[in-house]
């Protein structure tokens, strides 16, 4: 609203010559029992621009974290850090005392919700770590920018890694060993015995070698957390799709890819679910109160599809598009 008003700065200046417009500010506000503030002067416009620039960071964050068709769990922590830095910089700015006072009030509320990192849900950090651009190293950089002590940063990062390990061991039982390695041990042994059935000495060597390979593969699997964290970072690209990346690494990081899928579906905001209920009230109004739930669902989904992107018939359709 402030950004739009700034575009009409000259219009407001000319409106002061309008008697009806000027008379509005002469009246006493019935709720506050005092004269209304205005019309806007030049010094107010300068302050307005400063406030608009300050609040833009919060507006952009709100729009990004309220998205419903893109992953938001990977960017939650980064947006929190960005807001913290903006607030701290504004608090140190002595040029505008009124803006500084606003920043102090925002900082007290920020500290209430995000000040104690130990109380913050660890999924906020894990979503960020599972973006192959960042991993654990970026968390340490962020905490440094937020002026945390080096010892506390180290202990917190270690705690996040332990949390990843716990998640890994919780998911691992759902994946049989053969699924993780991609090798059926019984088939390998049968093939070796068939190949060297006439040479027991070589058969013995190869069976021992097969056993070593099995042991090494099990060690690699047990350290899938280390494997992911020690791999090279993904290069920055505007076309990078984190879901496609994890889909392509399902065979090398099978357990971790399943963890990533479960974390990525968590929305950063309740806006999407609230919109669903708001849409329900619009569909089921007093004049259509007896609609069957399936009809309500069909109407809601059709509304979303009509507003969605058109399917491009000149490219290879995805499975979802085929089903649609």
Automatic annotation (TrEMBL):
Domain HAT C-terminal dimerisation span(s) in chain numbering: 224-306
Residue ranges of every copy of the hAT-like transposase RNase-H fold domain listed in the record: 66-171
Protein known as: HAT C-terminal dimerisation domain-containing protein
InterPro entries in the record: hAT-like_transposase_RNase-H, HATC_C_dom, RNaseH-like_sf
Natural source organism: Dorcoceras hygrometricum
GO molecular function, one term: protein dimerization activity
